[in-house]
Amino acid sequence: MSKNHSRINLMANFCNKACSGLILLVCVPFYLKYLGIEAYGITGFYLLLSFLLVPIEAAIGTTINRQMAQLTAVENTRAEAADLFRSLEGVYWFICLLTGLSISCLSNSIAYNWVHPVHLSLTEVAQAVILMGICLSFQWPNSLYFSALMGLQKQVLVNSVQVFFTFLKSAGVIAVLAFIEPSLRAFFIWQLIIVILHTLTFAILLWKYMPQDRGFFRAHFCGKLLKQSWPFISQTFFLTLTSTCIVSLDKLFVSRYASLEVYGYYILAYNLSNGLYLMIQPFFYSLFPRFSQLIAQKKLVDLCKLYENYSQVVAVLVLPLAILCVCFTKELIFIWVRDPQIAEKVAPILRLFILGTACNGLMSLPLALQYSFGWLKAIIWQNIITLTLLFPVMFLLYEKLGVLAVASIWFIHNLCSLLILPIIHRKLMPKSNKNHWIKKICILPLIAPLALNILAMNFLPKIESLYFLVTVLSCLGIGSIIFSFCLTSVFRDWIKTRSSPKILIE
Question: What pLDDT does 201 receive?
Answer without folding.
Answer: 95
